[in-house]
């Protein structure tokens, strides 16, 4: 295109005016705008370089970084939302006669670079940051006083190299010459280019904007040839737009470009305006999407990545703000990335608190990216400042000690009730898995604030969760469905499925009814089908029909409120004294006195807890036959007292008694077990707890080749431990007290009140 001055030399004035008018209209400009552009289209004068977009910029300076905080650009939507294509059913699309995509739309390559606005004077990233340094030759190449929208790009699959371009600055780490060299590269394959695809200041339709844009790029190519005659490729490039008519053309174009390494394709609507928002007139079509996240920590690798970075612990950024959605990025790293991630002197350094770009397949229902892949650091990205309220909320969250153990236990309890209610395929296995989590965590003193810590506690408790770290590193999520649920709770504070289940009337009903002793899930489900949904309704129904429950269930219903109450330690002391006196009385009344009689209240009472849930008693003697007689007589004498009643017995035999008793204000559940002299130390150890301590001690025994139960210690093949082996280690034919079991297994003896998670210690 010739300037107006050059044209004037060859054309009469009238013809010249008409020519200028036609050219201006074709480019979407007024005659004044065309003349103004013509005067500086080949200019490299500094006075011509002025900022024109935004018209009145809001400037924020943070350290050595400058941001234009009111920069707004045309943003793309996805062509598909789920399985459905975007639909244009608005008035503006009808008015502009824009057909549904991709009919008549324009397709171009989606560049894997940094979105950048040229404001007529300087470059600004989509993250609103002004580029710290751009070589003089590149600035001179740009059109002065004209705003452009495009991508700073190097080549396909090379995002890591370009991602930090905007923050490179001349200083101690890099000289101006070194930075210029990075921009220029050694060939077109590794040099920095500006791929231009729109004019943000223009209010013209898309096709008109493209005509003007192509003219601008051609003009600047002429400037480039004057600046660097020996360089073949001009780094400012017009993005070719190809109009297509059907889906087949779109798919073919996508396949062709991606097969060559392109990230995807962009679709632009014909006759569409430049909207400074996320617009339905700019669509992206790609298998993966991109996003940013804040690095919150590191997870070390396992297997071949042992000692190297396994994954980045990240918080997703949504709407330029931290979202509190936590996830991990474990793929996309080179071996060098994994080695130098924490080396502050390396260009591959990924500091905690930095912002990284990643690609992913889709977001889950709770906004967690699926299969995230690391792309590079985003130094140009600016996090929006929180409102005063949000700042206070974040401050409060940071001050709060996060421990998700109660939420996990309550959520998994709901899941168990659901499995028992629905009884779908493999429900018993699921219930068993959920119960294992509850049992382990209920007896753990560890603070559960991360999935990694939960995994450690569950494994120590005997849960088989092999290969989870490696799977997570590769896929960005855990293999175990149980860990996936725990991960959701720790990320979001809730388990969505548990909330949904909790609102299920059937589950709510069965959960309430099964709190009654002797009423299990099957009986509760039958009651529910009969229209009985609450304990109150069951009480009324039982009054009308006594056959509704058996004798044991009727006892459970009658004393349900009492049995729900905890037993204070002072009352437990009274029960201990009562049973001690009654045992002594029973022995005195027996003709043949049993030898070696032992009795102990166990459970949380023996661990010196301040309250208990029920009363568990162990009884033992030297001779098993005499012991069974002792058990029978002991129960008879107890039932003669005012504290126990034959009508409140669930079951009674020579080795086990279950029933109710009252010594103060409320009825309590009482279990009495008889064990032989050889079984007693193992039963005492098992019944004392805590459950987590028992699990860890059993796990330790398994590692040493044994199987530890509430009755004995055997080898894993069920072979008995011989008398000679016991004598060699503990000086006895068999264990007669708890300490003997600890010492035989090579463990330090732990007092009952200290038996918590992590208390199992090896003897030196």
From TrEMBL:
SMART domains: POLXc
Gene Ontology biological process: DNA recombination; double-strand break repair via nonhomologous end joining
PROSITE patterns to which the protein is assigned, alphabetical: DNA_LIGASE_A2, DNA_LIGASE_A3
Keyword Nucleotide-binding included in the entry's annotation: no
Domain ATP-dependent DNA ligase family profile: 185-312
A GO cellular-component term linked to this record: nucleus
A Gene Ontology molecular function term of the record: DNA-directed DNA polymerase activity
SUPFAM superfamilies from the UniProt entry: DNA ligase/mRNA capping enzyme, catalytic domain, Nucleic acid-binding proteins, Nucleotidyltransferase, PsbU/PolX domain-like
Coiled-coil stretches noted in the UniProt entry, renumbered to this chain: none
Keywords on record: DNA replication, DNA synthesis, Nucleotidyltransferase, Transferase
InterPro entries given in the database record: DNA-dir_DNA_pol_X, DNA_ligase_ATP-dep_cent, DNA_ligase_ATP-dep_CS, DNA_ligase_OB, DNA_pol_B_palm_palm, DNA_pol_lambd_fingers_domain, DNA_Pol_thumb_sf, DNA_pol_X
Matches recorded under PANTHER family: DNA POLYMERASE LAMBDA, DNA POLYMERASE TYPE-X FAMILY MEMBER
Protein name: ATP-dependent DNA ligase family profile domain-containing protein
Species: viral metagenome
């Amino acid at each position: 295109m010739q300037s107006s001055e050059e044209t004037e030399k060859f054309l009469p004035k009238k013809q010249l005016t008409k020519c200028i008018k036609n050219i201006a209209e074709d480019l979407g400009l007024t005659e004044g705008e065309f003349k103004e552009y013509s005067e500086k289209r080949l200019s490299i004068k500094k006075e011509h370089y002025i900022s024109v977009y935004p018209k009145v910029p809001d400037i924020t300076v943070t350290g050595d970084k400058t941001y234009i905080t009111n920069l707004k650009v045309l943003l793309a939507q996805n062509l598909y939302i789920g399985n459905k294509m975007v639909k244009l059913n608005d008035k503006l699309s009808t008015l502009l006669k824009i057909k549904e995509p991709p009919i008549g739309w324009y397709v171009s390559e989606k560049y894997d670079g940094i979105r950048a606005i040229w404001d007529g004077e300087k470059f600004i990233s989509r993250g609103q940051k002004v580029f710290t340094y751009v070589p003089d030759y590149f600035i001179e190449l740009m059109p002065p006083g004209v705003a452009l929208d495009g991508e700073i790009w190097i080549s396909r699959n090379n995002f890591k190299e370009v991602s930090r371009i905007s923050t490179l600055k001349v200083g101690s780490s890099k000289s101006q010459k070194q930075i210029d060299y990075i921009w220029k590269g050694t060939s077109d394959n590794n040099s920095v280019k500006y791929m231009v695809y729109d004019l943000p200041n223009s209010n013209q339709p898309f096709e008109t904007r493209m005509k003007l844009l192509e003219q601008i790029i051609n003009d600047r190519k002429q400037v480039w040839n004057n600046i660097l005659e020996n360089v073949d490729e001009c780094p400012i490039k017009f993005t070719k737009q190809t109009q297509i008519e059907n889906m087949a053309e779109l798919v073919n174009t996508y396949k062709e470009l991606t097969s060559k390494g392109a990230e995807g394709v962009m679709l632009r609507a014909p006759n569409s305006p430049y909207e400074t928002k996320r617009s339905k007139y700019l669509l992206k079509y790609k298998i993966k999407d991109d996003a940013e996240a804040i690095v919150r920590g590191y997870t070390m690798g396992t297997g071949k990545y042992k000692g190297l970075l396994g994954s980045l612990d990240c918080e997703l950024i949504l709407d330029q703000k931290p979202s509190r959605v936590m996830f991990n990025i474990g793929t996309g790293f080179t071996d060098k990335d994994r080695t130098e991630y924490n080396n502050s002197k390396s260009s591959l350094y990924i500091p905690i608190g930095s912002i990284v770009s990643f690609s992913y397949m889709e977001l889950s229902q709770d906004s967690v990216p699926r299969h995230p892949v690391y792309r590079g650091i985003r130094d140009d990205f600016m996090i929006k400042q929180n409102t005063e309220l949000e700042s206070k909320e974040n401050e409060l969250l940071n001050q709060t000690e996060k421990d998700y153990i109660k939420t996990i236990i309550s959520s998994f309890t709901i899941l168990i009730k659901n499995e028992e209610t629905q009884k779908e395929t493999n429900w018993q296995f699921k219930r068993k898995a959920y119960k294992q989590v509850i049992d382990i965590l209920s007896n753990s003193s560890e603070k559960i604030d991360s999935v990694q810590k939960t995994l450690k506690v569950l494994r120590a408790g005997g849960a088989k969760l092999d290969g989870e770290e490696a799977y997570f590193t590769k896929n960005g999520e855990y293999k175990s469905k149980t860990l996936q649920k725990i991960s959701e709770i720790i990320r979001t504070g809730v388990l969505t499925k548990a909330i949904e289940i909790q609102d299920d009337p059937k589950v709510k009903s069965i959960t309430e009814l099964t709190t009654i002793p002797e009423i299990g899930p099957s009986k509760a489900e039958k009651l529910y089908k009969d229209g009985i949904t609450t304990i109150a309704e069951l009480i009324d129904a039982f009054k009308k029909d006594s056959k509704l429950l058996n004798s044991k269930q009727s006892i459970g219903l009658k004393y349900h409120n009492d049995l729900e109450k905890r037993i204070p330690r002072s009352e437990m002391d009274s029960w201990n004294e009562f049973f001690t006196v009654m045992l002594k009385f029973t022995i005195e009344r027996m003709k043949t006195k049993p030898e070696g009689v032992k009795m102990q209240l166990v459970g949380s009472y023996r661990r010196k807890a301040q309250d208990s849930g029920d009363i568990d008693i162990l009884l033992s003697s030297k001779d098993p036959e005499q012991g069974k007689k002792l058990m029978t007589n002991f129960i008879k004498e107890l039932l003669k007292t005012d504290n126990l009643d034959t009508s409140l017995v669930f079951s009674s035999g020579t080795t086990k008694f279950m029933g109710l008793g009252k010594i103060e204000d409320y009825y309590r559940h009482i279990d009495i077990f008889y064990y032989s002299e050889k079984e007693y130390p193992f039963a005492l150890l098992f019944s004392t707890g805590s459950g987590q301590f028992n699990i860890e001690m059993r796990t330790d025994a398994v590692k040493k080749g044994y199987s530890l139960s509430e009755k004995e210690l055997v080898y894993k093949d069920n072979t008995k431990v011989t008398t000679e082996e016991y004598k060699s280690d503990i000086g006895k034919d068999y264990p007669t007290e708890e300490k003997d079991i600890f010492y035989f297994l090579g463990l330090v003896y732990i007092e009952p009140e200290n038996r918590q998670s992590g208390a199992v210690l090896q003897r030196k």
